[in-house]
Protein 1
Amino acid sequence: MTEIVHLVGCGPGGPDWVPPRAREIVRKADVIFGPSDLQDLFPEAPGARMDLPARPENAAPLVLAALGRRLGCAVLVRGDCGLHSLAKGLQSRLPAGACRRIAGVSSVQVACAAFGLDWQGARILSAHGRPLQELGPDDRQVPLVVVLGGGERFHEILERTREALGPWRLHLASDVTLPTESLRTIAPGERIPSGLPSRTIALFERTGP
């Protein structure tokens, strides 16, 4: 593998959810970039391993340096590389045509399936390291609002989102596909638990007309 950066969707975290194509690409890579837990999903891959900063402006110089040495690179991202991942920002900072995306299973897909929900037409918002976008009138008409986040302020974000949406049912999916997976449903008016794991997906399901 030479002079190509593969942006590899690694699925929601469990080893059984890594696509075979992703395993093939990573096994052939000269350099494997990504957090250690994602690298651990590929014990058979012989390439050199390197952690990568979470922000694309900091990650891009490291990948460019490997490309300059004519090394094939695999950049590991959580879930699918097309949904609120490092892939978009990184690809925009690399030479045109240098990137190939390898699709993975999104944690949102897995969470929706776990609760028997369609995610067609869902509004997907990310609170990862950024203020959550304000919800407008059109957002209250969609069947599902998905909030990605975690961290210390996630509970506050969920409370504000519920206040903006009204009496919607809330589903919480934490650590999906991992041994610590937790699924729970919070009825309208019921207290939202604090101290949620960092890998928590909140699904607000509209229950009214």
Note: The first strand starts at residue 5 and ends at 9.
Protein 2
Amino acid sequence: MTRTRDRTRTRSRSSRLAWAAFAAPLVVVAALAVAALAIPEQGADADASDTEAPDFTLPTTHGDSVSLDDAIADGPALLYFSMGPGCDGCFVQIPEIADELDERGVELVSIMPGERDWLIADQRRLGVSQPIAVDSDVAVSEAYDMLGHYGHSDVPSHSFALVTAEGEVAWERHYAEMFVPAEELLPELDAELDDLTS
């Protein structure tokens, strides 16, 4: 009887060890995946110094148009690409950083896909007064390589590109989150702006 119990305990212990050996790699992979989503994506072009910014002219939700030349006429511009209609955080992001960028002498150009009327409806609902450039066919988003990040193949995720007054993309970042607090985004941007003026 004692031997039977011993054999049963041994088999039970072996089963637990086998299960732990199987599960451990899965836990590690899951943890790495979660960590990757929490960190801004920094691809080959994350520090894209000397990359020429593609030219564009887009209609806006204010009834006028905006071009790259307009945006960088008086200094650098931050191009903000996002998913657009149906993404409340994407819209609220605009007033979150607009005044801060203005104080830094950086022009904010928010670019979203979708129909102009849809964008205007979400703007009004969320109280966003700043103009939004309408990239209805995502041609500008594609030209800036803003598609395909974090699983969104046909629309931008939540991305930023800093364009210098000379028309070069100096810095870009892609986020998994649909809203990035100013205190998280701006310190990194400030470091890049300091580099540009030093």
Note: The beta strands are 51-52, 57-59, 65-67, 77-82, 107-112, 132-134, 147-149, 152-156, 158-163, 168-174.
Protein 3
Amino acid sequence: MNTANENILVEGTEVSIERISFKAGFIVSACLIIYFMVMQAFHLVGSGTAWGFNFVILSIGLVLTYRTYRSHTSPNIDYFPGVILGAMTTAICTVVYVLFVYFYLSAIDQESLVLLKDNVLFLGKEITPLKVAVATLIEGICSGVIISFVLMQYYKSGFGKKSFKSVPDRIVQDS
């Protein structure tokens, strides 16, 4: 069983949960930042539904992270390392995104805070960049952990498929 701290050597290349989660976390946060800028351009920052789409972006990012890890290792991902992979990816992605949102709302576009006043997610009548950042951090971490637990129900079993690398070996052995 692989633990989170073990690195796996595959075809001369070291595969680690940390390396994959850092890379995926920064890529997903870049996608979230781009989406935030699109929301800003189309004046959707005040829409709770538009903010909810972050969940979809995070879900897609985690699915692709698990698929990347699985393609470099084996079709079955052990449960605990898989949850750690999802949690680390979520933490990195969410922290980077929250820092961007905080600095954007505090330094670049303070008028957008008025649009968030009616959004219940951002904690009350007095909206500050810090409240928006904290609410976004809580939402992002909770969403990512839930998504990770759900996805691991599938990835721990490997979907009942063999990896592409092992299929030719099996065919050769059966011949």
Note: The two ends are 31 Å apart (CA to CA).
Protein 4
Amino acid sequence: MNSNRDAALDAKRALKDIEAAQGRTNAFAFYDSAGPIVFVWGVIWLLANTLTYFKPQAADMAWLTGIAAGAGFSMFFGWLAGRRNNSGSSLPKSLLAGLAIAGTILIGLNAIGLAVGVSTQQQANGLISIAVATAYILMGFSRGARMMVLGVAVGAATVAGWLWMRDWFELWMGFVGGGALILGGVWLWRT
């Protein structure tokens, strides 16, 4: 009787070990897919924020170009990840999904901006940076702790820049926020 109970406990432990291993495998597969996307967005933050700081009149064009490039790269890398994982997703489906997500985010951020009274490029930058940090933190709950760590790093950089580097906020977010994304992308990608 004891041996049956021991066997049942061993089986339960083995199932828990298998579930834990599957969770780690899923997290690492996600990191591998997300790494290049996060890296590209880090480069965009670096370039667009730096250009915004030095040539404020070019900020809209810098961000419009950067966001379009980032969305395109994100959709492409997402499609590649789907092909690697045999999800059966076609490129047109991936593009439509990416455009739907981008449109939803754009509408949501504009609604929040209107509700809280965002009136400057710097305020918009801070709001978007905090939204990105929050999204990464929330993603960390389901996709793995590294996303949460990345979100905390971007959020901390945003708050620190807003509180102590306001005169150089765009430059700060370019190098510190963008740098966090670049390093985070490499960290995710190379797991």
Note: Residues 2-189 form one domain.
